[in-house]
Amino acid sequence: MRLLTYNIHKGIGGRDRLYRIERIIRAIEEQNPDLICLQEVDRNVRRSRYHDQPALLAEYFHAADSLYQLNVHLKTGGYGNLVLSRWPFRERHQISLRQKTRKPRGAQLVVIDSPEGPLHLVNCHLGLSAAERQWQVSRLLHHHLFRKHADLPTLLVGDFNDWRNVLDRQLLQAAGFRLVTHPISRFRSFPAWMSLGALDKVFARGDIVVTHARVVRNALTRRASDHLPVVVDFHLGQPPLASATAEAGAHAGHADGHSR
User: What is the value of pTM for the model shown?
Assistant: First the structure.
């Protein structure tokens, strides 16, 4: 299975400041992911031509299920997080991670009915201050909607805004999570055109075998957003060799096509 996490910056290029949602679509499509976790997704906002980006992306990628969380409200719409899945959700929840006087933030919690079993997937976008981020992760880890799926394999992904990787050392390791996007020197994703910080992260807990993880760094992704996408290939438990080989071939075969 393949997951992609990506702060799409509302479809606006990080350097040219042009709104080009088609660049985001191409960047995602080239990776052929099964699970897509996005941050900063616009809906009904002037800068993005009043596009309903969640609906547009769900339709383009033929998502079997999707969930949009509008966190920041603007005059006519706003922006937030989006999860798209090749497979249906068994459960879906959204929680606020907002601190008073701070920009609204949130996390999406879904249980996906994957072909390898149920997967608990959490998509989040954390704040800009260290104290705010620590409070947000602590709130998430102790929230009853998060804790109710403690027995399931869990992926925690998104834009953590954690330049020094403090959350991993101080909170997430103690909660049983391991950092998939490690070492951080290999996973610098921001800014896209000259990446210095590993802000976009993937954490795993439970029976998850990661076979490959990388930052997608090419001419297209350097222009499409101010972040680079991160891709992770994984299985629930150790896959049979034949299944893993077949899936790798399927992803390679569809990498240039409109597969969903």
Answer: 0.91
**pLDDT tens column, 134-169:** 999 999 999 999 999 999 999 999 999 999 999 999
Q: What SS3 class is residue 149? A: coil
Question: Which of 186, 224, 190, 215 is CA-nearest to residue 27?
Answer: 224
Helix (H, G, I), strand (E, B) or coil at 244: helix
Neighbours of 26 (CB within 10 A): 13
All domains of the chain in start order, with CATH:
2-254 (3.60.10.10)
| Structure tokens given for 42 | 């616009």
Report the alpha-carbon distance of residue 240 to residue 28 in Å, rounded: 27
Per-residue pLDDT at 239: 52
The strand pairing partners of 209, in sequence order, are: 235
- Rounded distance between C-alpha atoms, residue 102 and residue 135, angstroms: 12
- Can you name the residues that pair with 37 across neighbouring β-strands? 5, 83
C-beta separation of 211 from 238 below 8 A: no
d(CA 224, CA 233): 23
